[in-house]
Amino acid sequence: MTALPTFLPTGRPPRGLRRMALAALAGATAVLLSACTADIHPGSAAVVDGTSISEGSIDTLVQAGCAYETEMGKIDRQTYPVLSISTLRANFVNVLIRNQLARDAAAKIGGLHVSQDQVAKFAAGNTIPPDLKDPEKSQITEFFKNSAETDLLVALIGAHLKDDTVTDASNVQQADLDAGQKYLATYSKDADVSVSPSIGTWNGTSIEAGSGSLSVLAVTPTTPQVVPGQPAPNPAETLPPSQQCG
């Protein structure tokens, strides 16, 4: 049986897809990407060195993400803060861009392999609510697998840089993940990344979320008045219900 990397978390995973997506986004935004030069294909949310991420797949993933959060709230007996759909959509696209960049970087080095068994075991650390049904269940499961594959590939790249005889992720360490992040940052500077205006604006580092639709005028969240001594209000709560998730 293939061993799991030592940097994998144990115990209950972070609660809520929002935390998971934002954690992945933090890794994505740490990778400095070049300004976009590739052309956006019709129906694409983003294009990474010629590989398209479809808008349709992102739309269904956002719907699944909202359903996931609802079901996780039932398990945790709480309601998660409202999140704007445009922000969630941009977060998902950022995560999938990073996944494609990691795949491309590993392919360029050559000879590196992450097994589907390792990916599945890594992704299994995330909670899937028992009442989450297909197709949302399958979509969220696949998202977690993509995120797991990214971290394993990046760690493998880091391990290979230290020892070029390492070609699989069986024994990667946290230090390998850190080294791989640095390599991916350098690699990404030469990548052609473009994002559909329906998703947001690519600023060279991450996506600045837009309305999420070319046909819907974006409504900018209003900054609620902060009451001294009280938690800061959530601007997403000022959006129309159609632009909220949660």
Indicate the multimeric state. single chain
Succession of helices and strands: HEEHEHHHHEEEE
What is the average of the pLDDT values?
74
Strand residue content: 5-15%
Tell me the major beta sheet.
Answer: 3 strands, antiparallel
Low-confidence stretches: 1-38, 211-224
Number of E-state strands: 7
Give a short summary of the structure.
The protein has 246 residues and is mainly α. It is 45% helix and 9% strand.
Which keywords apply here?
about 250 residues; three-stranded antiparallel sheet; two-stranded antiparallel ribbon; about 45% helix
Molecular structure report:
The protein has 246 residues and is mainly α. Helices cover 45% and strands 9% of the residues. The protein contains six helices and seven strands, in the order αββαβααααββββ. A three-stranded antiparallel β-sheet has the order 2-1-4. The chain has a two-stranded antiparallel sheet with strand order 3-7. Helix 1 packs across helix 3, helix 2 crosses helix 3 and helix 5 crosses helix 6. The chain is globular.
How is this fold's topology laid out?
Elements: H1 17-29, E1 44-48, E2 51-54, H2 55-76, E3 83-84, H3 85-109, H4 116-123, H5 136-162, H6 174-188, E4 193-195, E5 200-202, E6 207-209, E7 244-245
Antiparallel strand pairs: 1-2, 1-4, 3-7, 5-6
Helix pairs in contact: 1-3, 2-3, 2-5, 3-5, 4-5, 5-6
